[in-house]
Structures are given as C-alpha cells and as structure tokens.
Design goal:
The protein is α/β, with parallel strands linked by helices and about 220 residues long. The protein has helices spanning about 30-35, 70-90, 160-175, 205-215; strands spanning about 1-10, 20, 50, 55-60, 95-100, 105-110, 135-140, 145-155, 180-185. The strands form two sheets. Strands 1, 3, 4, 5, 6, 7 and 8 form a seven-stranded mixed beta sheet that branches. It has a two-stranded parallel ribbon with strand order 2-9. α2 (about 70-90) links the parallel β4 and β5 (about 95-100). α1 crosses α4 and α2 packs across α3 (about 160-175). It is globular, with a radius of gyration of 16 Å. It comes from Octadecabacter arcticus 238. InterPro entries: DUF2927. Keywords: Signal. This is DUF2927 domain-containing protein.
C-alpha cells in the first residue's frame, strides 16, 4: 500500500507543507491540476492523481477524549455535517456519508487534546503518531491503482472556534484526493485550498469545479 503524508497549517522539519506558488487567477483547468496533482500552470503533474472509487465514502469521529473542549467538539460536529453537504453538492460522482461512531468508516476524524506544536499520539498510524501538529493534519492511503482506501485527520484542541468550520472544510475536501494547497493572494478569500488563510467558510467557485472534475457524474 502506498502511503502519503501531508501536514497542514504548520511547516516542520518532519513534515513539510505541500503547496504551489502562483500569481493571480488561474483557469479552472489550471486550478484543478494544481490541487489534484501539484501541477504548475501549463506544466505536468508532480504528484499522482488519487481519488475514491467506492460510490459511497463514509466518515466518522474516533472516540472523543473527555478533556477535549466540549464547545469545540460541538462545533466540529456541526462543521462536519455542513462540510458533507457542500462536498456532495459539488461532486456529482461522489456520495460522502457520515456514520455513527460505532461503525467502521473510510475516513476517521480524531479530536485530540493536544495543542499546536504537540506530538500527535494514539492514532495507530506510525506515519502520524509523534509528528507535531499545527491546527490539523491529514494522512491518506491509496493502492497500486491510485485509488484511495482510507484516510485519517487529526484536529488540535486549541483551534479557535471561528476557524473550526473552515479548517474542517479544507481538511475533508483535501481528503477527497485534492491534496495540494495554493499560495496566491488572489485565492485567500476565494478558496479552501489557500495556504495562507483559514477563513473561507464555503467552497469557492473553483473549489466546486475541482471537485466536479475529480468526481464527474458516473
């Protein structure tokens, strides 16, 4: 199984950020190529294109520690539901579904009682445990056919409440296989893939186009 690790929102020597620097607005095709395979405008892919093949992708929370902030956990729960709605509306060939915490799921969300800079612990993924976290960190797995098989996202306990929704939206959207951020001031208020902003609460026009390109109607 091929494993890919991307640390978001905090650059560290152990797990560097993945983003592409551009300037000004991109075409829909250029934007999609950037977020799906780290391609510079007009150039080829630098990463494999990975996506989910099952018609229904499930997501749930791992058991939430008692010492995780209750208000933040409630906001994360709300944000998960609104994020699922947004992704499903944008991707006609994908059905993302939340299941109860007792059921197995393709994507596991971990709310950990750790702060930015602390080491992730207890996920069972050796590629994640021990890695310092920023606000959140994502791990995805895929097979030899570049089909995603499972994913895990860890969220820190010191995320500001007003950033919980944007961070959940970014992380879960990237877990669909669109793993590369964009550093470009034009997109700071327009895209969840902006490297330098955690304020976008709704998928932007080109975010939705990228999901549609990645998951066209079956």
């Amino acid at each position: 199984m091929i494993r890919f690790l991307l640390a978001l929102l905090l650059a560290t020597p152990l797990a560097a950020q993945e983003y592409v620097v551009t300037d000004g607005p991109l075409t829909d095709g250029e934007f999609y190529s950037l977020v799906s395979c780290a391609a510079l405008p007009g150039q080829g892919c630098n990463e494999p294109i990975i996506r989910w093949d099952p018609p229904v992708i499930t997501v749930t929370f791992a058991p939430i520690p008692q010492n995780y902030p209750v208000d933040l956990a409630m906001e994360m729960t709300r944000a998960l539901d609104t994020t699922i709605t947004q992704i499903n509306a944008a991707a006609p060939g994908l059905s993302l579904r939340r299941v109860s915490n007792s059921q197995p799921a393709h994507i596991l969300l971990y709310l950990q009682a750790i702060r930015a800079g602390d080491a992730i612990r207890g996920t069972g993924y050796p590629e994640m445990d021990g890695i310092p976290i920023g606000a959140a960190q994502i791990q995805v797995f895929w097979d030899g056919d570049q089909s995603l098989t499972d994913a895990a996202i860890v969220f820190a306990a010191d995320i500001p409440i007003d950033q919980a929704g944007p961070i959940m939206l970014e992380e879960l959207t990237q877990a669909m296989g669109l793993m590369t951020d964009i550093r470009n001031s034009y997109y700071e208020t327009r895209s969840v893939f902006s490297e330098d902003s955690n304020t976008v609460t709704k998928l932007g026009v080109q975010d939705r186009a990228a999901l549609r390109f990645h998951y066209p109607a079956r």
